Amino acid sequence: QGGEAGGGRGGEAGGAEAADSIRSVLKALSSERADQLLRASALCPPQPPSRPNVLSVSVEHAAVFLGGRYLKLSRQLPQTAWIIDGVRKCPSSVEEIIAAPVLKAFDAASLKFHSAGREDVDVRMLGLGRPFMLELRGAHRSALPAGGLEALQTQIAQSGVVHVRELRVTEALVQSLIKEGEDGHCKDYRAVVRLGRDVSQVELDALGRQCPVELAQLTPLRVLHRRSHASRPRSVYALRATRLAPRFASLDLTTQAGTYVKEFVHGDFGRTSPSLGDLLGCEADILQLD
User: Fold this and answer.
1) How confident is the model at residue 1 (pLDDT cuts 50, 70, 90)?
2) Per-residue pLDDT at 281 exceeds 90
3) Distance between CA atoms of 67 and 115, rounded to whole angstroms?
4) How far is the CA of 159 from the CAs of 30, 71, 153, 164, 200, in angstroms?
5) Which of 43, 72, 92, 210 sits CB 3.0–4.6 Å from 125 for a disulfide?
6) What are the respective helix, strand and coil percentages of the chain, to the nearest 5?
7) Phi and psi (nearest 5°) for 36?
């Protein structure tokens, strides 16, 4: 009984304390100061803004992709802008000649140029041309009226040094296909070479019978500043040489993509083996390459 009585008195005391606490809270909330605090700090409803909120939204069209093939007819034109230590080496490039009319036609902010490999500044790109793709960013037009792409090709050809063929709107997937195909295809070249001794057509004809020729090519000295030092196996699948003069010849070659043809001719101080000079047993140097 004593325990029950004590528990009863404890419960009554606890209830009284709780009631006093509630009355204290209500009394505090009813005061003018509490009302001011609640108005200043309450999150709901929020205070009305003293100045308007400004929201900025930028909307941009998805990238537009153009694909095609380009031909380069000049021996003084790089594929992309050639700038060393802030100094421009050539006044223009294949990319810039193609880009100017395309950017204007599609009203695009910028573009990226992708290609299946590249040629040296003094090498012409002939035949069917080199596959390339343009990635147009911020374009206000995603397509051109009928005949618009053909008109672009004509406008680019007016440069006199770059022609474009098969220009078309394509998909981004083509970009990966271009990159995958860089080392998987054969390429045809024509070179004019100077030899260190007189050669006969019979000797030149014998070169073709040695094909395919398997090469070991160290990274050429001329590109060692921008390419990793490595040994690359490459193949010359076919070679036909025509005597132009006692010490001059033209070469028609079919090689594995990625073969350094200039180095195959002169050997690059022994960094490409075998070289044309090795096969003929004399010095050899390249004068022109297409």
Assistant:
1) very low
2) yes
3) 10
4) 86, 12, 11, 11, 41
5) 72
6) 30, 30, 40
7) -65, -40
Sole residue written with tokens 């490039």: 93
Find all residues with CB under 8 Å of 62, minimum gap 6, and list them.
none
The C-alpha atoms of residue 218 and residue 129 are separated, in whole angstroms, by: 27
pLDDT tier for residue 2 given thresholds of 50, 70 and 90? very low
Tokens of 228: 């990793």
Banded pLDDT at 183 (limits 50, 70, 90): low
SS3 state at 175: helix
In 3D, which of 174, 146, 171 has the Cα closest to residue 64?
Answer: 171
Looking from the CA of 35 toward its CB, the CA atoms found within 13 Å total 4
Catalytic residues: 120
**Residue 257 neighbours by CB under 8 Å, 6+ apart:** 117, 181, 182, 183, 184, 185, 186, 187
d(CA 268, CA 38): 84
CA atoms within 13 A on the CB side of 184: 5
- 147 in Cβ contact with 218 (< 8 Å): no
Residues contacting residue 265 through CB under 8 Å, at least 6 positions apart: 191, 193, 251, 275, 276, 277, 284, 285, 286
Contacts of residue 231, Cβ cutoff 8 Å, sequence gap at least 6: 216, 217, 218
The span from the CA of 290 to the CA of 125, in Å, is: 6
Assigned token pair, 63: 């990238």
> Do the Cβ atoms of 181 and 212 come closer than 8 Å?
no
From residue 21, give the alpha-carbon distance in Å to each of 18, 29, 36, 147. 5, 12, 22, 86
